[in-house]
Amino acid sequence: MPSLTDNKILIVGGAGYIGSVLTRYLLSKGHNVTVLDALLYKNYFAIKSLRKNKNFNFIKGDFNNNFQLKKSLENVKNVIFLAGLVGDPISKKYPKRSRLINYYNIKNCFKRLNKYSIDKLIFISSCSNYGLLPTNKLANEKSKLNPLSFYAKDKVRVENYLIKNKKKNKFKTIILRFATAFGYSPRMRFDLTINDFIRQLYLKKTLKVYDSLTWRPYCHVKDFSMIINKFIKKQNIKDKINIYNCGNNKNNYTKKNIVDKIKVFFPLGKIDYVGLEGKDKRNYKVDFRKLEKELNFKPSHTVEHGIKEIISYLKKKKYNNNFLYGNFRIEKDSIKKK
To answer: In what helix (H) or strand (E) does residue 218 lie, and over which residues does it extend?
Structure first.
């Protein structure tokens, strides 16, 4: 059998919103990339063009399937785990499946990774884990977690499992708590705050904004890809568990701040500030200085850049099929198989 190579990477969930951008970025950096994805959202179109790349391998499958997982891990040294029912709305819509996939199946998958010669596991978690915190302080990696949603609670459960089993696991683990993503992707999502706000105003709809003064951090999908690549290349990782908030301190914004930035491009856009009637009570500011210091990372894409980018793609393409451009519901066939 061929020996393990540093540039052989498995991305679990590599056909998704972040995954399809990350896959292209890593290929452009000379990595050999295998994607394992169940295509729950009929999103094969997002990676179809990559099949001609000799350094790309796609396996349609479930990370909870032993055979498919084994096949995807052949000669792999670094695993990037993005898969799951991603986001608060989709996990709330399918609570039982969400708990099964986002906690039990992921935990069992990580147990099985010990059978293989994995060097690093990069687990994509979420800043949503901070939930509801006083905003006069920035939440750092040591701050108390206060998850409010099904999605965030399962992210925290997986994090705790990895921390508890750090001595048993043969691989080193990097937990990346992602800020709220924005920006263009081959598998576009318009159910994310910035992307959704832009699209609604572009289509001349009245934008309803709930809880406009609540805080979130934001980060462009391409910057996430740059961060992950830096961790893949990072040598001499001493600790078995490493946790980082992923984003930038300058990109902590209220929803009102985001609307004001987008409104510059749509001065006649109609905004309806609904007040405190929203069901999403998350409110947190996040400190990303650890990432900046240890990885020497600064984002290359501002919110303004993302706004211009998405407007440009909205002008070029018609995103009429809402099902394909957000995590709204999962393919019926995949429900029957489980």
So the answer is: strand 215-220
Q: Which domain holds residue 291?
A: 8-189+217-252+284-301
Would residue 319 count as lying in a domain?
no
- Encode pLDDT of 203-218 as tens digits: 999 999 999 999 999 9
Q: Cα dist. 259→68, 94, 133, 281 in Å?
A: 44, 30, 22, 18
Distance CA 216, CA 247 (A): 11
3-state secondary structure of 186: coil
CATH of the domain at 224: 3.40.50.720
The verdict on residue 19 lying in a domain is: yes
Residue 331's pLDDT band (cuts 50, 70, 90): low
Q: What is the pTM of this model?
A: 0.93
Task: Measure the CA–CA gap between 182 and 164, rounded to whole angstroms.
Answer: 32
Q: Is residue 194 part of a domain?
A: no
Q: What is the pLDDT of residues 154-166, one digit of tens each?
A: 999 999 999 999 9
**In whole angstroms, what is the distance from residue 194 CA to residue 144 CA?**
27
In a domain, 45, yes or no: yes
